[in-house]
Amino acid sequence: QVQLVESGGGLVQAGGSLRLSCAASGRTLSDYTMGWLRQAPGKEREFVAGISRDGRNTVYADSVKGRFTISRDGAKNTAYLQMNSLKPEDTAVYYCAARSVYYLAPPTEVQTYGYWGQGTQVTVSS
Predict the structure, then answer these.
(1) What is the DSSP code string of 55-122?
(2) How far apart, in Å, are the Cα atoms of 3 and each of 10, 74, 112, 115?
(3) pLDDT tens digits, residue range 97-113?
Protein backbone atom coordinates (compact mmCIF):
# COMPACT_ATOMS: atom_id res chain seq x y z
CA GLN A 1 0.00 0.00 0.00
CA VAL A 2 1.02 3.60 -0.43
CA GLN A 3 2.56 5.76 2.27
CA LEU A 4 2.08 9.53 2.09
CA VAL A 5 4.17 12.27 3.68
CA GLU A 6 3.20 15.94 3.50
CA SER A 7 5.56 18.89 3.74
CA GLY A 8 5.60 22.60 3.02
CA GLY A 9 3.31 23.92 5.69
CA GLY A 10 4.14 26.91 7.83
CA LEU A 11 3.19 30.41 8.94
CA VAL A 12 2.36 32.98 6.27
CA GLN A 13 0.69 36.38 6.20
CA ALA A 14 -2.67 36.86 4.57
CA GLY A 15 -2.26 37.27 0.84
CA GLY A 16 0.84 35.09 0.78
CA SER A 17 1.50 31.74 -0.85
CA LEU A 18 2.61 28.26 0.13
CA ARG A 19 3.16 25.07 -1.82
CA LEU A 20 2.42 21.80 -0.09
CA SER A 21 4.00 18.56 -1.26
CA CYS A 22 2.83 15.00 -0.77
CA ALA A 23 5.56 12.44 -1.37
CA ALA A 24 4.44 8.87 -1.94
CA SER A 25 6.35 5.67 -1.30
CA GLY A 26 5.55 2.00 -1.52
CA ARG A 27 3.41 2.33 -4.63
CA THR A 28 3.24 4.38 -7.79
CA LEU A 29 1.21 7.50 -7.18
CA SER A 30 -0.32 7.34 -10.64
CA ASP A 31 -2.31 4.32 -9.42
CA TYR A 32 -4.27 6.61 -7.10
CA THR A 33 -6.82 9.37 -7.21
CA MET A 34 -5.36 12.09 -4.97
CA GLY A 35 -6.97 14.63 -2.73
CA TRP A 36 -6.05 17.41 -0.36
CA LEU A 37 -8.28 17.88 2.67
CA ARG A 38 -8.01 20.08 5.73
CA GLN A 39 -9.21 20.30 9.29
CA ALA A 40 -9.42 23.53 11.25
CA PRO A 41 -9.61 23.57 15.06
CA GLY A 42 -13.07 22.63 16.23
CA LYS A 43 -14.28 21.83 12.73
CA GLU A 44 -14.79 18.67 10.71
CA ARG A 45 -12.32 17.61 8.08
CA GLU A 46 -13.27 19.03 4.70
CA PHE A 47 -12.38 18.47 1.08
CA VAL A 48 -10.13 21.05 -0.57
CA ALA A 49 -9.04 19.70 -3.96
CA GLY A 50 -8.77 16.45 -5.90
CA ILE A 51 -7.02 15.22 -9.04
CA SER A 52 -7.69 12.16 -11.13
CA ARG A 53 -5.15 9.39 -11.63
CA ASP A 54 -4.19 10.66 -15.06
CA GLY A 55 -4.06 14.28 -13.90
CA ARG A 56 -6.60 15.40 -16.49
CA ASN A 57 -9.44 16.22 -14.12
CA THR A 58 -9.42 18.39 -11.01
CA VAL A 59 -12.09 19.42 -8.54
CA TYR A 60 -11.97 22.23 -5.99
CA ALA A 61 -14.02 23.35 -3.02
CA ASP A 62 -15.78 26.62 -3.73
CA SER A 63 -13.86 28.28 -0.92
CA VAL A 64 -10.50 27.75 -2.66
CA LYS A 65 -11.45 27.85 -6.33
CA GLY A 66 -9.27 30.29 -8.23
CA ARG A 67 -6.70 30.46 -5.42
CA PHE A 68 -5.47 26.86 -5.02
CA THR A 69 -4.10 24.51 -7.67
CA ILE A 70 -3.62 20.77 -7.29
CA SER A 71 -1.12 18.94 -9.46
CA ARG A 72 0.90 15.75 -9.61
CA ASP A 73 4.31 14.73 -10.94
CA GLY A 74 4.61 11.06 -11.84
CA ALA A 75 8.37 11.20 -12.23
CA LYS A 76 8.73 12.47 -8.67
CA ASN A 77 5.85 10.38 -7.30
CA THR A 78 4.59 13.53 -5.64
CA ALA A 79 1.40 15.55 -5.53
CA TYR A 80 1.24 19.28 -4.83
CA LEU A 81 -1.13 21.94 -3.62
CA GLN A 82 -0.18 25.47 -4.64
CA MET A 83 -1.99 27.92 -2.38
CA ASN A 84 -2.12 31.60 -3.34
CA SER A 85 -3.94 34.59 -1.86
CA LEU A 86 -4.14 32.83 1.47
CA LYS A 87 -6.71 33.95 4.00
CA PRO A 88 -6.85 33.48 7.79
CA GLU A 89 -9.76 31.09 7.29
CA ASP A 90 -7.42 28.77 5.38
CA THR A 91 -5.64 28.02 8.66
CA ALA A 92 -5.84 24.27 9.24
CA VAL A 93 -3.94 21.01 9.22
CA TYR A 94 -3.73 19.93 5.59
CA TYR A 95 -3.75 16.26 4.67
CA CYS A 96 -3.08 14.54 1.39
CA ALA A 97 -5.08 11.40 0.78
CA ALA A 98 -5.39 8.72 -1.86
CA ARG A 99 -7.78 6.16 -3.20
CA SER A 100 -6.87 3.39 -5.62
CA VAL A 101 -9.96 3.78 -7.76
CA TYR A 102 -10.27 5.65 -11.04
CA TYR A 103 -12.76 8.50 -10.97
CA LEU A 104 -13.49 10.71 -13.94
CA ALA A 105 -14.15 13.46 -11.40
CA PRO A 106 -12.24 13.09 -8.10
CA PRO A 107 -14.59 12.53 -5.17
CA THR A 108 -15.24 15.28 -2.65
CA GLU A 109 -16.43 13.07 0.20
CA VAL A 110 -13.82 12.84 2.94
CA GLN A 111 -14.58 9.21 3.74
CA THR A 112 -13.87 8.17 0.16
CA TYR A 113 -10.14 8.43 0.67
CA GLY A 114 -8.54 5.38 2.26
CA TYR A 115 -4.89 6.37 2.61
CA TRP A 116 -3.79 9.44 4.53
CA GLY A 117 -0.63 11.32 5.37
CA GLN A 118 0.11 12.67 8.83
CA GLY A 119 -0.81 16.25 7.95
CA THR A 120 1.03 19.55 7.82
CA GLN A 121 0.02 22.74 9.64
CA VAL A 122 -0.78 25.87 7.68
CA THR A 123 -1.30 29.06 9.65
CA VAL A 124 -2.33 32.30 7.96
CA SER A 125 -2.02 35.46 10.04
CA SER A 126 -4.13 38.52 9.42
Answers:
(1) S--EEE-TTTTTTEEEEEETTTTEEEEEE-S--GGG-EEEEEEEESS--SS----GGG--EE---EEE
(2) 22, 15, 17, 7
(3) 999 988 888 999 999 99
What is the rounded distance in angstroms from the CA atom of residue 58 to the CA atom of residue 71? 8
Give residue 104's pLDDT. Answer: 82
Cβ-contact 115, 97 below 8 angstroms: yes
Q: Cβ distance 34 to 72 under 8 Å?
A: yes
Of the chain, the percentage scoring pLDDT greater than 70 comes to: 100
Distance CA 63, CA 89 (A): 10
What's the pLDDT score for residue 101? Answer: 84
Distance CA 41, CA 54 (A): 33
Separation of alpha carbons 36 and 56, rounded Å = 16
User: Are 97 and 35 a contacting pair, CB within 8 Å?
Assistant: yes
Q: Mean pLDDT over all residues of the chain?
A: 96
Angle at 28 (CA atoms; ends 71, 83), nearest 5 degrees: 20
